[in-house]
Amino acid sequence: MALTQLLVALVAFAIGVHSAPPPAGWSLHRRADPDALIPLKFSLAQSNLDKLETFLLDIADPRSPNYGQHWSPARVKETFRPSQETIETVRGWLTQDAGIHADKIRLTPSGDILQLDVTIAEAESLLRAEYYVYSDDEDGSVRVGCHDGYTLPDHVSKHVDLVWPTVHFGGPRSISRRSESVPPSSRFGRESGASTIPIENLAALAESGCDTSVTLDCLRELYNFDFTPVSGDVNTIGVAEFGANVYRPSDLNLFFNSFRTDQVGHTPTLISVEGGDPTVSGSVGESSLDIELIMGLLGPGQNLSLYQVAQPKASLDPTDELLAALDGSYCSVSPVGNEGITDCGNKPATNVISISYHFNPDLNDPSISPVVQRQCAEIGKLTLTGITIIASSGDGGVAYSQSHECLLPSGVLSAGNPNGSFVGQLPASCPFITAVGSTSVSPGASTDQVEESTTDFPSGGGFSNNFPRPAWQDSAVQNYLDNFVPDYAASVFNRSGRAYPDVSANGWPLVIAEGGGFVHSGGTSASAPIFAAVIAAVNDARIAAGKSTVGFINPALYSDAFAGAFNDVQVGSNPGCQKQGFPAAPGWDPVSGLGTPNFAKLRDAFLALP
């Protein structure tokens, strides 16, 4: 099945899930009051979503005569707006077949949602569902839904992506969790898992190797990263931080004073989403890591924007908050409509956005799949406008990130069970994102040698259960499957799924300033901002040459034109689920992707394109 076919199918899952338990984190409380009113929302199927991949390849495939000719946001909005046929089909079913008075049905201004206020009894009759009241196990809040599923008529289901409230209970399964990891021996007493380097020993780093302490100079040497901005203020890059993941300017100055003196006194430009505030108390590990690496590599000539996304209430996913802030039309097509979202398309979009978080396991689950598929489609639409979105691939190897959960035949996620199948993570497995895995300098090796996949934690990688393999990675992935994949049973992983990561970069042991001292830190959450800085530098060169930003880079990276732009990582693996995971191999592999970047070669390859 083509990628766009699956996206368009987006769950007309309408036929429901029977005898399913309540979603994780929620407890069934009681049957809902039949006379209670609920706002029922029908998210309408977008037009031309089956052509999204074709539209993207037309501007992102190096062989296309239209390479780099990105779309305007207005063109994107108009192209994917639900058709009049879709609107009238759903409205007609509600009024003619279901007997809902036309005055009760409202179409949102964007034309993406039909909504109506009905009683629980009316909703149950309309959807052939049973509604219950559920309690959030963490904060005790309640909401209504129908975890057993719902049904739509065949002629209607293809015009509806989601009905809410139904099976989607909102909020990520893993709330704004940092995607990083370090050796277990270094975890004690620190939420970030970093091990402290006493400040008085910092001078000794100059004499230690990059296999024991990775500094900015190590990264420059590893990736041939000699960069001075030349495009001025036109080029932009952003990093997304969520909830109470914050930074302190004093930590930035401590870091810059030692490793990048021309950045002392500089801080990122705040783009607050839903009131996100980086000055509140919270964890300083993730934000410090991201900001120091990007600003340290790019220097004062390139501004960094900070998307500080507030921790949402339980019914919202932070991903939806960020996407809605960038694209106002998404406020109405997100799984819960615009409930609780106030920033709708009023935040500037940077050319590159780095995300070092994960929010859901990549499961073919009716309570997750339609939501993440719609989010991924929105990401694809954003890349049409010339944005590159980069995400960490996770630190759980072939299992679900740090929780190391695998999928049992019963459909339950469980850690430490040898019968579990591999589980990826989102948003990294969305094909419109560039997913980044982690590497390390081999013990005793120099920066002239190719790194190995990190052994201090298993770098995330594998195959999606939600998205089929896109055409642009067919050749590279099939080569791996034909020649290097272990002899696993067919049920262990989805061989036809989107494969990731796409690339990799160093993930351990990086030196950063955090909490007033220097620490070793890392994870794929370090690898993502490193690679994001590389792409921002590529954009700088293209803009200076009068060319467009690179936008959706995956088709180009996998093409022959970029064959020499990566250092091919061939050592390492990413174990999980009590299996060895996948071994690194020549060419692309599900541990290190295409390899680590050689900036000069990557820049020149992109400069050679129109």
Main β sheet profile: 8 strands, mixed
Treating each run of at least 4 consecutive H or I residues as one helix, how many helices?
A: 16
CATH homologous superfamily of the largest domain, by name? Peptidase S8/S53 domain
* CATH architecture term of the largest domain: 3-Layer(aba) Sandwich
CATH topology of the largest domain: Rossmann fold
How much helix is in the residues? 25-40%
CATH classification, class level of the largest domain = Alpha Beta
**What is the number of E strands?**
28
Molecular shape: globular
Calculate the terminal CA-CA distance, rounded to whole Å: 31 Å
Structure description:
Residues 174-193, 441-464 are annotated as: Disordered. Strands 10, 11, 12, 13, 16, 20, 21 and 24 form an eight-stranded mixed sheet that branches. A four-stranded antiparallel sheet has the order 3-4-2-7. Strands 1-5-6 form a three-stranded antiparallel sheet, with no helix packed on it. It is 25% helix and 20% strand. Mean pLDDT is 88; it is low at 1-19 and 173-193. The protein folds into two domains: 3-46 and 81-164, no CATH class; 177-607, Rossmann fold. It has 610 residues and is α+β, with helices and mostly antiparallel strands.
